């Protein structure tokens, strides 16, 4: 539908540069659609201690994305406390040991990557590609917040994508509204941004700009209301169900009781299966062929959260009943986002 929706990793260096309290910042990030907390550990920068990571994860409920820009990352890898949902990257230019990386991955189980400075050639990655999950392309100087985006990295990413389409691509440095548009076109998986997000007190607006569309709309703003949906009762005949789906042109019927409680759904696919498996048994009714526990969304759920769940759980459905409590109030179709004037 949208193509790939990149994940956003928010760098805490941007918050530190503005004197923000890290605990309060972590709470805020959990509310504005951030996917990871980006944690920089850089040479000569004594701002973020690894001992703070568990607390920030607990406060925010978010995984961390740790970027180690040290000449020798071995000591940090030995002391850092991460879990399988986190990510960590060391620099390909650093003095790292593949054996220690393999041991770390076996112990922690999180995604592991190599960071590549702007001037470093892709060939430096060759010996390590079997041991990493992603490459973090630096598009500005590591460990410094607010740097300008270096567009020379674009060609490097294109080349890497062509050669290694299965490796995840992350970008860090100067990621703002303009550069994010380029990164979305490139299909970058994770965008790291800090100073840009904190440049505006309306952090949500900044994230919206990075994503290129307003994915923070609640379902109530873009759902199909019940008066436009196909509504059937559990004792409707299959012919009545098919007639209602065809009349509404929605591809799905909501099976509701008198109190508008959702009992199940019937899709075009259900009708086809009934026709093939039951040879069009005319004695069957809606309750016989409906799916009784369909995936649902809540009226206040944000579009971004619904799409993320759709992606992470590998959900094939594109139609979701919308509920308030146990009462059905509408239908969300993924295609409806194209029709919203607010996106």
What does this structure look like?
The chain is of the alpha/beta class and 343 residues long. The protein folds into 2 domains: 7-211, Aldolase class I (TIM Barrel); 219-338, CBS-domain, CATH 3.10.580. The chain has 14 helices and 15 strands. The strands form 3 sheets. The chain has an 8-stranded parallel β-barrel with strand order 1-2-3-4-5-6-7-8. Strand 7, helix 7 and strand 8 (190-193) form a beta-alpha-beta unit. The radius of gyration is 24 Å and the shape is elongated.
In the CATH hierarchy, what is the superfamily of the largest domain? Aldolase class I
The H/E string reads: EHHEHEHEHEEHEHEHHHEEHEEHHEHEE
Number of discrete domains:
2
- Roughly how many Å is the radius of gyration? 24 Å
The CATH topology of the largest domain is what? Answer: TIM Barrel
> Termini, distance in Å?
14 Å
Major β-sheet annotation: 8 strands, parallel, barrel
CATH architecture of the largest domain: Alpha-Beta Barrel
**Runs with pLDDT <50, length 5+?**
none
């Amino acid at each position: 539908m949208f193509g790939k929706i990149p994940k956003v990793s928010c760098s805490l260096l941007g918050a530190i540069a503005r004197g923000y309290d890290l605990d309060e910042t972590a709470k805020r990030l959990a509310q504005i659609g951030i996917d990871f907390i980006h944690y920089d550990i850089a040479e000569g920068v004594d701002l973020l201690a690894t001992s703070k990571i568990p607390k920030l994860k607990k406060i925010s409920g978010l995984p961390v994305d740790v970027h180690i820009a040290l000449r020798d990352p071995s000591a940090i890898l030995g002391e850092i406390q991460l879990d399988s949902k986190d990510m960590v990257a060391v620099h390909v230019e650093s003095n790292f040991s593949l054996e220690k990386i393999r041991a770390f991955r076996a112990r922690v189980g999180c995604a592991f990557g190599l960071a590549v400075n702007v001037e470093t050639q892709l060939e430096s990655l060759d010996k390590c590609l079997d041991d990493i999950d992603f490459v973090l392309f630096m598009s500005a100087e590591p460990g410094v917040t607010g740097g300008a985006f270096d567009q020379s990295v674009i060609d490097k990413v294109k080349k890497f994508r062509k050669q290694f389409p299965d490796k995840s691509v992350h970008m860090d440095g100067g990621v703002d509204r303009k550069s994010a548009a380029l990164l979305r076109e490139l299909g970058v998986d994770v965008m790291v941004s800090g100073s840009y997000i904190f440049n505006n007190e309306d952090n949500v607006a900044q994230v919206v700009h990075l994503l290129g569309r307003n994915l923070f709309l609640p379902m109530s703003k873009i759902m199909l209301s019940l008066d436009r949906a196909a509504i059937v009762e559990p004792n409707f005949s299959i012919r009545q169900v098919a007639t209602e789906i065809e009349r509404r042109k929605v591809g799905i019927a909501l099976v509701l009781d008198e109190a508008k409680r959702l009992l199940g759904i019937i899709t075009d696919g259900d009708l086809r299966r009934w026709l093939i498996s039951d040879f069009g048994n005319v004695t069957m009714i809606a309750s016989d062929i409906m799916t009784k526990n369909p995936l649902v969304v809540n009226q206040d759920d944000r579009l971004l959260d619904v799409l993320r769940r759709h992606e992470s759980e590998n959900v094939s459905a594109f139609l979701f009943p919308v509920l308030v409590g146990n009462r059905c109030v509408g239908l969300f179709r993924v295609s409806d986002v194209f029709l919203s004037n607010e996106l």
